[in-house]
């Protein structure tokens, strides 16, 4: 897999210019009763659950059975292979294929040598093959989204996938589109892309295509409504009652237009698998929710791959399987290796008639079809180092073939990593063109985010598990299973020193925030630098949500202190999510760069931007509000009362804001913001002109139903109904990339929840030389022009006039066109 860049034509940046816990316990308790009794118990539990959900204001989880069998649409030849394969297996072998076991990887399916099957190795995660040695650490999903560059996002997926494959890992546990980013405080928002479903949908699609073209299976996660870390799992109350995981209560329209939207893109892109989430959705656990799994995913979206559980997110056997779960990970119940909801229980359930053999066959076929489709029957062996890194040592219950250890899979991916990190850096302020730097005589570098790491290079260890991570060292990625083991890291200070040396620039630095904020803390700096660079960071990690949206480590005081001393202060943030910037309007803060989580090439990528080797072209994939309190509309559900509750069902998160998250909220309520969604400066300027709209001939309403459902849902939803054409020009003095953005304002829609004022429905990134212009077309599909009609249970194009607005951010809209689609 050495020459992917050549094969796929990656030219580098230069080239580019041109059921609940109680239900599960009942299953355990009812083990040994007759199958008929078991079914009665199950159904009554399900009905009770449904009744409980109906009573809620937000959404319901009605039962949807039976689980629709996969038919292999789009993967016909592989499906036939999977069918033949299944017909050759014993019942116990089928059970083995759907149940995780201990092994060398984070998740493992044991091999069956009798039929030449070597097993499956599942590894985290969305930005690196997490635990591996000699592997690359890519920019986070958030950074990729901030690039608004489909081409780079595709290559990120392709190169990531190649590293998984070369390490012998069949399934990459990513990308992430849930959390989508309902709350700015979400601890894992950075693993995914953007709170905008359209941008996230495209980023997921490109990532999945890239990954799977390299031969690895993608696992789109976490399905669905996984918008907070707090109480994501059940826990015991002080008196020993099981308090169930938070329930994300989402109304049907919001489910379709916001949270399900990017999953539809991912299914259409052919994702092999989907990971169901820890939380409950409308009262029922994500991994045994027949409405979301059988209904939305496997029926409405026509998903043909398999659903795997998040680790220990399975709370039952047969009910979860009937609700649509296909694979249990890691296969054990809690830390007890000898117990499983699946495994022997699945075998018994088939034997005693509780579970249809056909459903088990369907599970196996769903698992084996993508395997054959991606030719994984001929695959590199698992890197011999993996067992040590996973702390799961042989002997294993089933065989795994291990290959050489410490295989170097980095294959020169550093250049792409550097390019994406620069492309995902957003220039927010540039007073008097302080940037790009031109041979400054003196530079100051401040803040604990500028230097090298001092606590090690793998952010999963306990050294990083404080609410603020580690004090000293730059933040290339955040923590938890979405992190990566860094084989190297170029820190900002190191790269700046190297670049400054070319001009003989004097570089002075203080990396201790405590010192910087002391009254005479900057006394050692002499002379006062021409430009002072302040590096700030904000940590987040799986398992907890963020406490504050300001950067960590006394960041606001650090900026005031440096800015009081240096009237040309440029602030650079590395952060796991968005930051509020209380210092943004300080006149001495002349430059601001949101550099997100850049990965291993951090220092090089920021130097590329600071010195203008790369013209900034990143745009915010979220909104930066004026104040932290402005984000209260979608708070994480948490309170001292809930932390002490004895009510198993107390954790309810009602998504009352509906569709109005991020810019949709600020626009709807006409609120001023600091930097809006889609905003980002360049060292040049752009303009748009000549917007026109072509309508294509198509049956408009109702949605044609004669086409069979295909992955991604009714195929007519993807039909192009109109095209917006316009011209973009570079009106400045240097080459740069424009990101024209198209927003759509819907005519009035009959709905009990508010319709956003404007929604993103088109974007692209174009490199243009000074005075160069280019004509561009954005295609709008039926889905783009439809809302989810709850009564009709289908996508409907509203009558009336749409307004299309084109510009360079959600609030810099320069051209408008009116469009009547119906009639
Ligand atoms: C739990 C996380 O939620 C998931 O994203 C990850 O893939 C698994 N753990 C395995 O590490």
Observed structural traits:
823 residues, alpha/beta, TIM Barrel, Immunoglobulin-like, 6-stranded mixed β-sheet, 18% strand, binds 1-deoxynojirimycin
Describe the structure in your own words:
The structure is a single chain. The chain folds into 3 domains: 76-129 and 169-378, TIM Barrel, CATH 3.20.20.300; 413-621, Rossmann fold (3-Layer(aba) Sandwich); 684-821, Immunoglobulins (Immunoglobulin-like, Sandwich). Helices cover 27% and strands 18% of the residues. The model is unreliable at 13-57 (pLDDT under 50). With 823 residues, the protein is α/β, with parallel strands linked by helices. Strand 30 and strand 31 form a beta hairpin. The protein has a 6-stranded mixed sheet. The chain has a 6-stranded mixed sheet with strand order 12-17-16-15-13-14, with helices on both faces. A 4-stranded mixed sheet has the order 10-9-7-19. Its EC number is 3.2.1.21.
Radius of gyration over all CA atoms, rounded: 26 Å
Which geometry do the CA atoms define?
globular
Euclidean distance between termini CA atoms: 52 Å
Averaged pLDDT = 92
Helix vs. strand class: alpha/beta
List unreliable stretches of 5+ residues.
13-57
CATH topology of the largest domain: TIM Barrel
Walk across the major sheet and give the strand order: 1-2-3-4-8-11
Query: How many E-type strands?
Result: 31
Q: Would you state the CATH class of the largest domain?
A: Alpha Beta
> How many domains in all?
3
**Beta-strand level of the residues, as a percent range?**
15-25%
Bound heterogens, unique: 1-deoxynojirimycin
CATH superfamily of the largest domain: Glycoside hydrolase, family 3, N-terminal domain
| Reported CATH architecture of the largest domain | Alpha-Beta Barrel
Main beta-sheet strand count, sense and barrel state? 6 strands, mixed
Share in helix: 25-40%
The helix count comes to: 23
Pathway: Glycan metabolism; cellulose degradation
Domain Fibronectin type III-like: 738-810
GO cellular component, one term: extracellular region
GO molecular function: beta-glucosidase activity
